[in-house]
Every structure is written in structure tokens, then in C-alpha cells.
């Protein structure tokens, strides 16, 4: 028994307490959510009705106050993804939906070319943020896993799979488009482009099998309009609860009071800094460079998005975790400080462990974004100026 306990608490052994926590904590949280009234599972009700509205060819982006509050903001392809869960009773569907999200992210992290110890550190750093997303029954953990697996698939020359994940993520939540820069990490970029076109055609047409071509075409047009409307609401979120636009954009506006600053003043420089590292052609095949770039994309995707909410930050925190373990086991002192900031302001600030008075301050000024932004700046500097002479990674097969 003593030996078994010692094994469980050894971070280098399989299985260990991190694996147990990773699946057990979200499972218990989902069981609790399944017992709650409809208002507490609103996101899941929106999700499942994307399928039913597609099936009945009803507008995907209108308000349906008799079914749920708020609107759907996911693309028509989401109807196909959510279909297996939508046909189940709510308590069972949301439980399976949540656990699939948790399992896919666990699987994706397990496929990263870092040591088993490093994978566990990433999972441990991201655990609470994953729980926050799962309690809100969000799609973000799955999307994060798709972005990671896009990189892994390209690394392993599984170009059809990589293209599928990029197109699926883009057609559902647009965020999947950040997988496109990974095209520079393969010499078979023409083949990858071909697969992207093929999967774009297939996935565009796929929802038509449960609706109609006219409905799907019109739904994509409607999706564009609702996203423009949503972006406008997010930009003006400082006027209400402040739970939207938890980004660098929101942080600067709320702390300075310059609420009329246009988003492109942030998005354009951010986009340039995420593309600039690609000019370092000689580093494209360097594994440390690739993983650092993956971390930058995962964090930048969130902190420069006006749609960023608290549950979205699972993507950014996983990105931070990837960057952190690249500097293990003895990271620089500033990395320890950044880790503490990420855990305090980003991870724990929305939880009951954080005093309400401090929660209010964090929300008011969008401080959840600050540690990830600081990390992103360090990562961007490293990508542009680090020599990356050491290409080796402590690698273990999952």
C-alpha cells in the first residue's frame, strides 16, 4: 500500500495523482452541474439546440428565450459535432460532453514532444482553468486540443489530419485558423494546402445532410453578421458586467479610461508579432522554436480577442504551461514570478478561493489578461532573438 501511494504521488510515474485529479475533479463538477436548473447549464442548452435548430432548419443565431438566454455564436458545423450529445438526456449529454473535452485535452498534451514530467506540469498548471471552462460547459478545452494536435500532426507528417483540425476549428469558432502558420513547419506545404481545400469543401457541405444546402449557406452569412454584432457588444462590455473582452484590449481600455481606442491598435501589432518569428527560416525545423511558437499562438489567440471570457483562458494557460516546461527543471527567476502571477490573477481569481473584493477588481480592470500578456511579450522576444542553439527536447512516448 505504501509503495502504491508513493507511486501515485510521483510525478514521473504512470498513473499519478495529476492524472487522477485531471479526470476526477471535472467529473465531480459535471455531476453537480447535471443536477442544477436549466439556467446553470445554459451554454449546453445553446449547444445542443444548434443541432435541433439545424435539423428543423430554424435560424441558428436568433434568441430563443423559451429554450435558453443569449445567442449561439458557433458556426453551422457545430451542429454535427454536438449531435451525439444533443440526442441524449441533458444530464447524460452534458456529462459526456464535458468529459470528452477533458479527455481530448489530456490526450493532446500527452502527444507533445516533451518529457512525461513536463506533460504533467502542463496539466497541473492548466487543471483549475480547465475546470473553470468545464463548469461553464465550454468548447474551449476541445478547441485547445485541436490546435495542439494540428501542430503534432504536422510534426508527424499527418497532413490530412492537420488540415481537418484547422478547418473544423475555423468553421466552428474561427480560432482554429491559428493552426495555419504551422504550414511552415512542413516541406509538403502544397499537399497540406490541397487537404485544406478538400476538407473545407467536405466540412462546409457536411451540415447539409441534416438540413439543406440553402439553410447552411444562409447560416454562414448569418454567422458573419452575429459575430460582428457580438464583437461590438464585447468592445462595449465595460458598460455592463465586464465579463466580456477579458483581453489586452479590455485591460488597457479599463485601466486607462480610453474606451474609444480602436481594437486594431492592438490586434495589428499583435498579429505582426505573431508572424514576425516566421522570418527566421533556419529555425523552422527546431523543436524548441516550434513549441515556443505554439505557446505564443495559444496565448495570443486569447489575449487579443475581444471575445475572450474567463473560460477561454484554458487555451492561454496551456500555452503558458508549454513555454514554462521548455525552461525546466531550473527556469529563470522571472519565470517563477510569471507562474505565480498566472496562478493568482489568471487561474484562481475567478474561483471561490479568491476574496470577492479582489475578484471585483480583477474583473473591473480585466487583470486576468495581464500575466498572460507579460508571458506573451517574453515569448515573442525569445522567438525573435533567442539563438535556439539547443534543438534537443527531453522526449518520451506517451
Topology record:
Layout: H1 2-8, H2 17-34, H3 42-55, H4 78-86, H5 90-110, H6 116-135, H7 140-155, H8 159-173, H9 189-205, H10 213-235, H11 248-256, H12 264-275, H13 287-303, H14 313-325, H15 333-348, H16 356-364, H17 370-385
Helix pairs in contact: 2-5, 2-6, 3-4, 4-5, 5-6, 5-7, 6-14, 6-15, 7-8, 7-14, 8-9, 13-14, 13-17, 14-15, 14-17, 15-17
Structure description:
This protein has one domain. The chain has 398 residues and is an all-alpha fold. The two termini are 26 Å apart. The mean pLDDT is 91. It contains 17 helices and no strands. It has helices spanning 2-8, 17-34, 42-55, 78-86, 90-110, 116-135, 140-155, 159-173, 189-205, 213-235, 248-256, 264-275, 287-303, 313-325, 333-348, 356-364, 370-385. It is globular.
